[in-house]
Amino acid sequence: MDTGEKVTISPDISRLLRRGVAEIIVEEEIVELLRSGKRLRLKEGFDPSFPDIHLGHMVTLKKLRQFQELGHQVVLIVGDWTAQIGDPSGVSVTRPMLSAEQVQANAETYMKQFFKLVDREKTEVRWQSEWFGKFTLADIIQLTSKFTIAQLMAREDFATRYKAGRPIAITELLYPLLQAYDSVAIQADIEFGGTDQKFNLLVGRELQSMVGQSPQQIFLVPLLIGTDGSQKMSKSLGNYIGIAEPPSEIYGKVMSIPDSLILQYFELVTEVPDKELEEFRQGLKDETINPMTLKKRLARELVTQLYSQQATSEAEEHFTKVFQKREVPEERTEVPFTGELVLLLVKAGLAKSRSEARRLIEQGAVDVDGKRVTDTHWKIVKGNIIKVGKRRFIEST
């Protein structure tokens, strides 16, 4: 809903359109819209199949917040209707079929995290079921008639699977059309998404033109690389930093990222000025800045954004005590157990099976009382402090 709030026309919009941006379609038209004084409707949709937000999502959310600060309106679309359809064929593990109750619960969790970064007062929340709940078979047929199979098969993942002889459910072909109709339903001016969403966003632009609306502009942001340093951040890959994780966990995970990611993280998920980033870049290049120093700065920036200065101080103190001074944290899980280390790891839930526990030990991921243990027959006695990985501590009692 438009509150009548005035829009700020920034004389210099280059930073808004450059930093944290992979591609804009069509840039000249977005510049014209930003300078027109019109209060733009910014579309951001989410699939409530999974409720948690990580730093990869934060790239888009920070950009939305920047537009909001100029007075523009975010329209958050909850994909409740498509989430309840899921993928009945079972081909897509990323689209499980959910009940209305699951969708509601996931949406509430998502929005609680979403509004840690985006201004709630300048956000309009819409549910897909508002329009799709009224759709008839005739409406679906009319929507599908506007596009050809050849157009849909231009999407890279569809084309790849088709060439490989892997199945593609008809339901999956509908999703880009349904997402496109969302843009029509809310009359989006700009839609935001990662570079992997380019096809779907272009379909929305095309459908709007077909029905007589001004085609939405497209704002694509880069995909943040995960903590493994190789693949995009994803919860399913375990290389993520969740924005709702405890401050000490966020701080510790940031400290574990490869040095090669430091500048990308600063650029995409912090507000550190560009001039300072250039100094960081030069310092890393000529080795006058210690990467550890920059990681600490990055960790402080992120925890402060998501929590507070106090939480940042506590997280930094925890990291220094546990990982730099090698002290044992006061917060550790007590497990009543004596016997083989392998069995303790399974009992404490630190390994799913004995074979996994043995692998952890053999790979050097387990310390007992501050000493690395690689003997899978190691015996635990009462009072031992066991550390698994970088951040998990247990005490045998």
Can you offer a commentary on this structure?
There is one protein chain. It is built from 18 helices and 13 strands. 46% of the residues lie in helices and 13% in strands. Helix 15 runs antiparallel to helix 16. With 397 residues, it is α/β, with parallel strands linked by helices. The longest helix is centred in the middle third of the chain and has 17 residues, at 170-186. It has a 6-stranded mixed sheet with strand order 1-6-5-2-3-4, with helices on both faces. A 5-stranded mixed sheet has the order 7-13-12-9-10, with no helix packed on it. The chain has a two-stranded antiparallel sheet with strand order 8-11. A hairpin with a 2-residue loop joins strand 9 (366-368) and strand 10. The protein folds into 3 domains: 14-221, HUPs (Rossmann fold, 3-Layer(aba) Sandwich); 247-324, Tyrosyl-Transfer RNA Synthetase; 333-396, Structural Genomics Hypothetical 15.5 Kd Protein In mrcA-pckA Intergenic Region, Chain A (Roll). It has helices at residues 14-18, 27-36, 55-69, 80-85, 100-114, 129-132, 137-144, 149-152, 156-163, 170-186, 198-210, 247-255, 262-269, 274-285, 291-306, 309-324, 341-347, 354-362, and strands at 23-25, 41-46, 73-78, 123-127, 190-194, 217-221, 333-335, 339-340, 366-368, 371-372, 379-380, 385-388, 392-396.
